[in-house]
Every structure is written in structure tokens, then in C-alpha cells.
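Z., the sequence and structure:
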Amino acid sequence: MAAELVEAKNMVMSFRVSDLQMLLGFVGRSKSGLKHELVTRALQLVQFDCSPEVFKKIKELYETRYSKRSSEAAQPQPQQHRSAEALSIHTNYDRGSTIPRTTITTTNIDYPALYGKYLNGLGRLPPKVAKPEVRLVKLPFYTTLDELLKPTELVPQNNEKLQESPCIFALTPRQVELIRNSRELQPGVKSVQVVLRICYTDTSSPQEDQYPPNIAVKVNHSYCSVPGYYPSNKPGVEPKRPCRPINLTHLMYLSAATNRITVTWGNYGKSYSVGLYLVRQMTSAELLQRLKTIGIKHPELCKALVKEKLRLDPDSEIATTGVRVSLICPLVKMRLSVPCRAETCAHLQCFDAVFYLQMNEKKPTWMCPVCDKPAPYDQLIIDGLLSKILTECEDADEIEYLVDGSWCPIRAEKERSCSPQCPILVLGSSDVNGLLPTPNTNGENGKATADVVDLTLDSSSSEEEEEEDEEEDDDDEGPQPKRRCSYEKGLVSAC
């Protein structure tokens, strides 16, 4: 199979620019660039995406080209021109090599054996059946600029548990300039990056990033750091690992030189695919600005949604007259600044888009903090009605939507919570007569004993009656009367 792969590469090397463009356009890859860029792209296609259709297309292009030249071979002068041209083509790619290259003819290749199998030895596919491709989910914080390598399956080469899969590619001058001219997100980290993404080999739906066991990534001659595991404090719970795109830019050759990437992975039965992408990393502030530009829902549409939520259900015995919405963000317990929720959520309660995007930038989960259901970025909307309410209602932390779509602030509970639980009554008022207990009177002097202790009195009072009363109080209750002074003079609790 290796010999057949070499022969296929030789066919590609003999292609002209138009042939290379037709081949790359057939598989949906970029056709722009100089000839050496097209050749590099086509060789990567043969190396990593060898499907029967690709080999068939290579064969057709090769046969079409040389069949035309065979028809011109009857004339002597075109024959000499053909030989010179063929010599010049091979000389361009054999420059510096002492090994002579054999001219490829169609009779030397067993084409059914070549394009009837995949390079990894899998069985034949029915003719004209396209192989479904592995797709990766779109990441809000990464905008894909170029696809350097389509998701390609990691195929084990032997029965060992630890496998290595190499990949060789080169950046185009345009891609190098994009990386060099991009701004820095932090020292040493460019916004335009070459990232490696790994996922399960599953073509049924877009796949999330998932690392294989014992993963290690080597770029040229250095190992690249891979996100580690989150610590787990719960006994018996395995620590989780954040599976994100791996930035390879700082270890790559930012030139026309070839880069070699080696992925080491554990072969434990599951199949994984890897892909290389040129991306632009976004920040939470940039995503917030984009959301403010295209994601604001008009207040009238939000009002219609409120009416829909509060519409009378004829099958229900309970009529809903209003629904309360808090103006406090459930994430950070602060007042909302940019009220946001997912269109797929059934509730009217919003969370703050600023903090939600910042939290997902650090640890992407994209789960609604209100209903704990998925709230991806492309489903987020800014509630225009609640944004308007926040500017008009600055002295309340909660509002209530009514059935007609209007709203009213809720302040009663806040005011009630600020008032004391025990009402304060002024002594001597007419309302006290029926509420306060009858005070005990002293038989000797007829004075009523007050419940309020005046701390300004001198302890060395000359009145014997007051000294006796104080001694009795000290013996019975100790210093308790002094701690009972919780109200101002002339006030008493009605509790």
C-alpha cells in the first residue's frame, strides 16, 4: 500500500496548476495560492484524506492530461516539446536529489487496488458513496479562518496501548502574516492561532472536544502543554478535564518550513479524530459587543411574550394574574446591567450577560443559571423590555409583570423588612392605657416603679427606699435591669 501511495503522490507532483485547482476544488479546499502551495495542499490531501473518490479524481486528471499528449505524439515537433516539458516538470521537484525519478505510466498502477481501499486497510466502500465526515461543534470564542487539516481518525499501528500519530504540514505566507500581525491577548499569546482539536470519531452529529487517555502533543522538537484535570474534593469522583483547543502557535515555524506534529494517545478501544485549524480567539468583551449589536430583542416583542405567558389557560383552574421578575443577577447577586437569557428558556427571569460570558470564557459550560438547561451563545438574546425597566426603576429590586404586559415595582416587602418587629409606643399617650400592664405601686410612698432604669442616677442616693429597691433588684436579677434599656427614655415595647 505504501508503494501505491508513493505513486499517487508522484501523479500529483506532475500536475499543472489547473489540475491541482480542479483536484482541490473537488474536495472543497482552497484553490488560491502559488503552485508550491497548491502542491503542498494536494499532498496533504493524499496523505491524510485518502478516499476512493479522491484517488479516482487523481486518476481521471492524470489520464486526461496524458491522453491529450498521446494524441499529439503523432507529430514530431509536439513530441519533442512534450518530452522537454515532462523533463522540466520532474526536474523542478527532483532538484537537489541524486535519485532518478521514473516516468509514471497508467499501465504500471493497479488503480482498483489503489482507490478501492482506505490507507488504514479498511474494506471497500460501494462506488459513489461519500464517506461521512466528522464535524466539530462551533466554539463561540474561536472564529475559524482556515482548515489546515480536516478531522482525521487516529488509527493504531499495532497492539500497543500507547500510540503515536504524526502529521506534517506547512503554513502559507498569508497565514504566517495573519499570525504575526495579530494582536496579543496576553504576553506571548496571539489572537490568531493554530489550534489542534480532538474529538470522538462520530459522524452522526457535531462533536465536542474530547481528549483520549494519556494524550501528549509534540510540535517539532518540543512538547506542548495540555490542559490538566480539575481537582475533585469529593471521594470516589474522578477529576474532570477541560477539553479545549490546544494552541500550537508558539512552538511552530512561522515561515514556509514544514511543521511536524506528533500526537501520543492511549489506545483503549475508543476511536478519536484530530483536526488542525487557523482560528482567531475572541474575548468576552468582543462577544458582548457582538451580542449588543445583533442580539437585542425589541421591547414590544418581549411584551408580547409576557402576555403569552400570562394568557388565561381554559384548561387550568388557576388564573395567573402576574409574574415576578427579580432585577438581581442570580450569578453574582448584583443588580442587572445587561439582562440576558436564552430563547430556548421558558422563564422570563434574566441573568447578566457580562458575567455569564466572563464565566464561560474561563470555564465553558453554557448552562442557564436559572433553569440549568443549555444556553449556548448563538441562542442568547438581550431583553429589551427589561433593559428599559432597569433605567426607569432604580429604587426596586423586583418587579411584577401584569396580564396586559405592563409592570409595577415591588417595594412593600422591602419597606416592611426595614420596620421593627415590635412597635414603639410613647408613654403617657392614650393608646397605652389598654395595652400596657398596670404598674406595681409602692405602699409607703405610692409611687409607681418605672420599667426604665436611669443610668444617670448616682449610686449613693440618700433615699433609703431607692437603695432598698436597688439592693433587691441586684439580689434577684443582678445587672439585668441595666441591659434591658433598649429603648429611648419615655418609650416601651408593645410586644
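The first helix runs from residue 2 to 13. The CA atoms of residues 71 and 140 lie 55 Å apart.

Let me know what you think.
H.
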